[in-house]
Design a protein that fits this description.
This protein has helices at residues 13-30, 32-52, 54-57, 63-92, 95-100, 107-134, 143-170, 174-184, 205-209, 213-225, 232-261. It is mainly alpha-helical and 262 residues long. Mean pLDDT is 81; it is low at 1-9. The two termini are 35 Å apart. Helix 2 runs parallel beside helix 6.
Length: 262
């Protein structure tokens, strides 16, 4: 007597990815508070830095032109940080055990979180720029430069979201993921996002100059306001691509390692 093994056909990559992207979008839409924060937080930060701090830093009123790139990246970081919590929640609530019974690629779960975060944060970026225009921001970018701005912002969001997703996999609980991710949110403050690097203490300047936020900020600032670009563009792209590669490899390893334990 012979037995025939039951072989489950593997779901195609695009099918699996589309399923989990739709799942993450539905979760985002149902989480009304998170959607409101994605819009309200950028608005509050923009108003705070321009109306409360702006005159103290630059009495001429031009601080808004300087600070907009930093606000964009700061808000992108806040928005992407929720990915760490969402991924950690998936890993601790048992839903991953159910996904393991399906013939799908493990990375599809993370892709869903990342794509939803990218879309949500691009909307927040548009809101930030809209509020900035209302409070006096006057960019002189050409249409091609605007496309480049959204391209570099999207690449940065993709990089930071993949990093937060990996942090969510590494954390033991959603609360721990939130705490670890919060540390990364301080990076924009130690960069050229809000004040020139040369105004910082000498011991802090090398740190501010050689971290990813500074070249990304300078690239966006140059495209929007015409400041010197220098080598910021290729440094920004290199940093973002490096973070994506490391985060994807680290995340895939963590996912397989944690899934085997269950």
């Amino acid at each position: 007597m012979t037995t025939t093994a039951l072989v489950r056909p593997r779901i195609g990559a695009l099918t699996a990815e589309s399923i989990f992207i739709s799942r993450s979008f539905l979760h985002s839409i149902r989480d009304v508070e998170a959607l409101l924060m994605a819009v309200v937080l950028p608005t509050m930060l923009m108003l705070m830095f321009t109306w409360i701090f702006g005159n103290a830093i630059d009495p001429s009123g031009g601080y808004v032109d300087y600070v907009v790139p930093g606000i964009i990246l700061l808000c992108a970081g806040f928005g992407a940080s929720s990915t760490a919590i969402s991924v950690s929640r998936d890993m601790t609530t048992g839903i991953i055990d159910r996904f393991r019974t399906m013939p799908i690629r493990s990375g599809a779960v993370l892709t869903g979180h990342v794509v939803a975060s990218l879309a949500r944060n691009l909307v927040a970026t548009t809101v930030v720029i809209g509020v900035a225009l209302l409070v006096g921001f006057r960019p002189d970018a050409t249409p091609i430069e605007w496309v480049a701005v959204f391209g570099i912002v999207a690449l940065y969001i993709l990089a930071i979201t993949y990093l937060f997703a990996a942090i969510g996999l590494a954390a033991a609980t959603p609360e721990a993921a939130s705490g670890y991710g919060f540390i990364l949110l301080f990076l924009p403050y130690v960069s050229s996002a809000f004040v020139p690097v040369e105004t910082m203490p000498e011991w802090l300047q090398p740190i501010a100059e050689h971290q990813p936020i500074t070249p990304v900020t300078e690239t966006i600032r140059a495209l929007l306001t015409g400041t010197p670009l220098g080598d910021s563009a290729w440094l920004a792209v290199a940093w973002c691509l490096g973070i994506i590669v490391v985060s994807v490899v680290w995340g895939a390893w963590l996912f397989r390692r944690k899934a085997r334990r269950r």
